[in-house]
Structure formats: C-alpha cells, structure tokens
Specification:
Oligomer: single chain
Order of helices and strands: HHHHHH
Number of helices: 6
Strand content: under 5%
Shape: globular
Distance between the termini: 22 Å
Length: 80
C-alpha cells in the first residue's frame, strides 16, 4: 500500500483516502506493530496528510478518521 501511494499518483491516493477504516488501522499498527510496520505506517500517514484531494468530501472523511483516533493528535498534525 505504501508503494502504491508513493508511485500510483492521484487516482490511487483518492481511492485510499475514501477508505474510512484506513487511518484507525494505521494507528493500531503504530502502537502494536513491528518496527518495520510502524515505519511504513508512519510513512503512509505522512503521505496521506500531505495529499490535498480535489474535493472537500475526501478531506472530511480523512479528517474524521484522524479525529476519531485518540493517538492521532500526538502522531500527525491535522490535515490542511
């Protein structure tokens, strides 16, 4: 997933940001995953944070996912 998001372009990132369970799942990896899983989850969260979707709908879904996780505020700054 990390490689797809890095190299797949806007279409892939649009599709990934539409998955509401993605961000909470990445935060679970940050707290319980192996060192490698934590590193990849952090990289993917940074990519998703920097992504500026073409519509406000995608932003609100991603922002809702980040706000719903208690760990989120400590790890990733709010989306733009």
């Amino acid at each position: 997933l990390l490689s797809l998001c890095r190299h797949g372009g806007g279409n892939v990132l649009n599709a990934v940001t539409m998955v509401p369970s993605l961000v909470p799942s990445l935060y679970i990896l940050l707290t319980t995953g192996t060192h490698r899983a934590k590193r990849k989850a952090t990289s993917l969260l940074k990519i998703l944070q920097r992504w500026e979707p073409p519509s406000r709908t995608v932003t609100s879904v991603a922002a809702h996912s980040i706000i719903s996780s208690s760990t989120a505020m400590a790890v990733v700054a709010p989306l733009r």
